[in-house]
Specification:
The structure holds 2 protein chains of 2 kinds. By secondary structure, chain A is α+β, with helices and mostly antiparallel strands. Chain A is built from 9 helices and 7 strands; from the N terminus they run ββαβββββαααααααα. Helices cover 34% and strands 11% of the residues of chain A. The chains are: A alpha+beta, B alpha/beta. The structure holds flavin-adenine dinucleotide (FAD), iron/sulfur cluster and FE2/S2 (inorganic) cluster.
């Protein structure tokens, strides 16, 4: 099939940026979306033109590197699917596709479709861990954890840190991402010990990075490739209230 | 050069404990004075960097992705082995050790493998303490599943995303150290050169992948944890950015490259379906717990699978290996799949595929149980192929997946260049000629959490901290080399794209140095590769400039290195005139097509020393001594 693409081009963080038109020819429906872009890029390269810069690595929906806004939707039209796992069979011959980077103040564009998501790393650095060093851990079966708790923790821990939740939210809020980590850890007995400190510090960092507030639109959940549930936002809010009297010393 | 493996003496079960006691220790006050570079933040590098920092060393870490959390380890699906014996099925350190040695077809170093089995238990404890959400039974205890090459159930898992969860545990530990100022992390930064001063590794030269700046970093020791080189085949299960550059640069600076021809082809991947394809997707080995592999008995069968009656199906693994059945090790399963396809009994449009069928398991256990075990894998399969594996059998075929070969290291995980340590998939040490499923994660974490934190101290204790700085002339020279190389790549302005070269090389390697090899093919490859390399340097088209984010340039540098690296792989494969594990030389097989090892002549690690481009490297042999187990013909029947 043949497609028309409008792609965001921006030389670097300072550049203003614009949409550029490309023709994608002879695209097979079995290609992934990124393979379609590979084909366009290889053609551009052979003409000596700058290929479209976009992030990807695993191409299996797990590393969280790919980050494309496709026709205005973070990761494109398929539910629970990262852009790298989207296939061209979901488009039809003659379609026009708009491809843009994540748009959020806290995710500045680096080049074309690539953004800087280091704000997410700094939120984790603020407390998204259990403070145990290497060595001296008790036997892994010493603390029984109910299957339900382990499953809930996993549901939250499945977050791939892609940032689609932020890109989808009209307030550019990072609540779903932060809630996923808070809930992962607080649903496990090991993570309860420093629960208060964790949620306070992570939320403080989130605010500092310039992410917006959550006003319960739930667009984040709809865009999330791992279907992280907004119920975790509710859980984080409860944790946060509980910790209000806690001050980091 | 005499290769000293530094394997300690004494009974195998006591070696590590005794050795640890003999290692020198750096005093807490002095640790701050030592600076360690860690390249790579996957399971191996991430765990090492965090552990060093906790001990008090100053650490600078690097990765090419935009975050440490995205290293290729994130993609591991099935699980991680440990000899906990929680299932009471008679597992033990010794059994895990034995299975690993046997699985590796008696081409790994006994003492390293034993230590790995010993440390496996600590890893599970450590990860559980970090909050890794492993699968649990209703009673709250950890659950296990089985993997290939083992008769016990010792694999721990977190649904189909074990690597992700382990890596996040390790990334979080690393983040904590970054927050405390003990680790400085550079993301989107690629190592392009190793710097060696007076024979010791003292730093690296990197390229900032956003600005193009070429910079040097000096340290008291350099740790490479840069993963494997499977995507030399272009199509592999690796992440797109995986590369051999760090490893290859170290090799060219004098580090020995060991067993580069030992590459693993994983039996269960989604088959190739088009020329434009950018990678292959693994379907975890864990699926072989419940899936049955078969092809039609008849050649050129054209009925759909559900219309082929039971007695016209060939469950070839169950037939050939009745005791291990579908859980035969990877090399054997892959080869068997190739065999039946070569006979014309392959399935799917291309005839290059076999069925992995869950219908019996669904009948026995119900769709819900299967969904809870493998839900995300089934979903991934359906996304890619648009077929529903709950209803029609999956189609799978082997694909390049893991590299057992890597830089040579001794028992300390230090290469022959003092101060250069190599951990995780990037080293060669523990898996011999074939890795068993779920033991790469185990090795990466054993190396990073529990081995190198001790052994590096021993090396550092014998050195003076901060001896070399980046104003040393070796750094200047290395920086200049990198700049010239980049400049050269950008100035060729030829007619063929980088990917075109990579695909071409990949196809050649797959044909001649893939699942089966022979003298003629390898010799042919060894004629082709230098030609391809020459054409590359004359005719590749690399667009853009250095001083910007330039993905074309990044790929070009990696492919340039692969074009040299491929040659050592083929030289090694040609030298090893025997079949062992994943290295199947067609000249050496039984009538039934089983590999024939030659212990008399090839019970050694081949360690190659770089000489010059277009000249044969020098072979050094580390003899493999088996004190504990007797090498025997592997039997999975
Ligand atoms: C699809 C898949 C599934 C798997 N499933 C399993 C499984 O179930 N169980 C199991 O045990 N094993 C599994 N494996 C194997 C296992 O995942 C890997 O062997 C292991 O994770 C490698 O870890 P590592 O830390 O050595 O390297 P990696 O995780 O590959 O990390 C490499 C690091 O080095 C960095 N790097 C590389 N080159 C450079 C450079 N030049 N400059 C700067 N940084 C660089 C990268 O940024 C990255 O941080 C699987 C592998 C694949 C592909
Ligand atoms: S919550 Fe979902 S959308 Fe947000 S970063 Fe995590 S995986 Fe991506
Ligand atoms: S490329 Fe890894 S999630 Fe898309």
């Amino acid at each position: 099939m043949n497609l028309t693409l409008y792609v965001w081009r921006q030389k670097d963080a300072k550049d203003k940026g614009y949409m550029e038109k490309f023709d994608a020819k002879d695209i097979s429906p079995d290609m992934s979306f990124l393979e379609m872009l590979d084909v366009v890029n290889e053609e551009l390269e052979s003409q000596g033109k700058d290929p479209i810069a976009f992030d990807s690595d695993c191409r299996e929906g797990i590393c969280g590197m790919c980050s494309l806004n496709i026709n205005g939707v973070a990761h494109g039209p398929e539910r629970a699917t990262a852009a790298c796992q989207l296939h061209m069979r979901h488009f039809k011959d003659g379609d026009t596709i708009y491809i843009e980077p994540w748009r959020a103040r806290a995710f500045p564009v680096v080049k074309d479709l690539i953004v800087d998501r280091s704000a997410f790393d700094r939120i984790i650095e603020a407390g998204g861990y259990i403070s145990v060093g290497t060595g001296g851990a008790p036997d892994a079966n010493a603390i029984p954890i109910s299957k339900d708790d382990a499953e809930t923790a996993f549901d939250a821990a499945a977050c791939i840190g892609c940032g689609a939740c932020v890109a989808a939210c009209k307030n550019a809020s990072a609540m779903l991402f932060v809630a996923a980590k808070v809930s992962h850890l607080v649903n496990l007995p090991q993570g309860k010990v420093e629960a208060k400190r964790r949620v306070v510090n992570m939320v403080a960092q989130m605010d500092k990075e310039g992410f917006g507030n959550c006003t319960n639109y739930y667009e984040c959940q709809a865009a999330c490739p791992k279907e992280i549930s907004v119920k975790f936002i509710a859980q984080m809010n409860r944790e946060y209230l509980r910790s209000l009297r806690y001050k980091d010393k | 050069m005499a290769l000293d493996s530094k394997v300690p003496s004494g009974p195998i079960s006591e070696k590590w404990d005794k050795y640890k006691f003999d290692l020198r220790v750096v005093s807490p006050a002095n640790k701050r004075k030592f600076h360690i570079i860690v390249v790579g933040t996957g399971l191996a590098g991430g765990s090492a960097a965090a552990s060093f920092a906790e001990l008090g060393y100053r650490v600078t870490a690097f990765c090419y992705q935009d975050s440490a959390r995205r290293a290729h380890s994130i993609g591991a699906q099935g699980g991680i082995n440990a000899s906990k014996n929680y299932q009471n099925d008679n597992d033990s350190v010794y059994r895990l050790f034995y299975d690993t040695i046997k699985g590796g077809d008696f081409r790994s170093r006994e003492a390293n493998t034993y230590r790995l089995a010993q440390l496996s238990e600590n890893i599970i404890d450590q990860c559980a303490a970090q909050g890794v959400p492993f699968a649990r039974e209703y009673g709250g205890k950890l659950a296990n599943r089985s993997f290939g090459g083992a008769l016990v159930s010792r694999t721990f898992y977190a649904r189909g995303a074990t690597g992700q969860q382990l890596l996040l545990g390790c990334y979080q530990a690393l983040s904590r150290q970054i927050a405390q100022g003990n680790v400085e992390l550079h993301v989107r930064t690629e190592m392009l050169e190793l710097v060696v001063v007076d024979g010791h590794a003292k730093g690296i030269v990197v390229r900032d992948m956003v600005t193009g700046e070429i910079r040097s970093y000096a340290a008291d020791a350099v740790v490479l944890a840069t993963g494997g080189y499977s995507n030399i085949f272009f199509l592999s299960t690796s992440a797109k950015g995986c590369n051999a550059t760090a490893m290859h640069r170290a090799y060219k600076k004098g580090a020995l490259l060991a067993n580069p021809c030992f590459t693993q082809i994983h039996p269960t991947c989604i088959p190739v379906h088009g020329d434009y394809q950018s990678k292959l997707t693994l379907m975890s080995e864990s699926l072989r717990n419940d899936g049955r592999i078969w092809v039609p008995k008849k050649k050129d069968e054209d009925r759909p699978p559900n219309e082929i009656p039971e007695d016209e199906r060939d469950y070839y693994l169950e037939r050939k290996y009745p005791s291990y059945g579908n859980l035969a090790p990877r090399d054997i399963s892959s080869r068997s799949a190739k065999e039946v396809c070569d006979e014309g009994r392959g399935v799917g449009e291309t005839g290059v595929g076999v069925y992995l069928d869950f219908s019996d398991a669904i009948e026995r256990l119900g769709e819900d149980t299967i969904r809870s075990r493998y839900g995300n894998l089934f979903q991934m399969y359906e996304k890619i192929t648009a077929e529903n594996p709950y209803e029609v059998p999956m189609r799978i075929y082997p694909a390049p997946h893991y590299t057992m070969g890597g830089l040579w290291v001794d028992y300390n995980l230090m290469s022959n260049l003092p101060g250069l340590f190599v951990i995780g998939e990037a080293n060669f040490s523990d898996h011999g000629a074939n890795r068993l499923g779920a033991s790469a994660l185990m090795q990466g974490l054993a190396d990073g959490y529990f081995v190198i934190p001790y052994t590096i101290g021993h090396y550092l204790a014998g050195t003076t901290p901060g001896k070399v700085r980046t104003d040393h002339e070796e750094f200047k020279k290395a920086e200049e080399d990198v700049k010239q190389r980049v400049h050269k790549l950008l100035s060729i302005d030829g007619n063929r794209t980088v990917d075109d070269f990579h695909r071409h090389l990949g196809r050649l390697m797959w044909e001649e140095c893939g699942m089966a090899r022979n003298e003629e093919g390898l010799k042919k490859a060894l004629e082709e590769i230098p030609k391809m390399r020459q054409e590359f340097w004359e005719n590749v088209k690399v667009v853009g400039e250095n001083e910007e984010l330039n993905q074309c340039l990044e790929r070009a540098g990696r492919v340039a290195d692969y074009l040299e690296f491929a040659e050592v792989m083929c030289i090694d494969a040609l030298d090893r005139d025997e079949s062992c594990g994943a290295h199947f030389r067609e000249e050496h097989q039984t009538e039934e097509g089983e590999a024939v090892r030659d212990d008399e002549n090839f019970a050694y690690v081949s360690a190659w020393e770089f000489t010059e481009i277009d000249k044969k490297p020098i072979l050094h042999k580390e003899p493999l001594e088996f004190e504990e187990v007797k090498p025997a013909t592997r039997s999975y029947k």
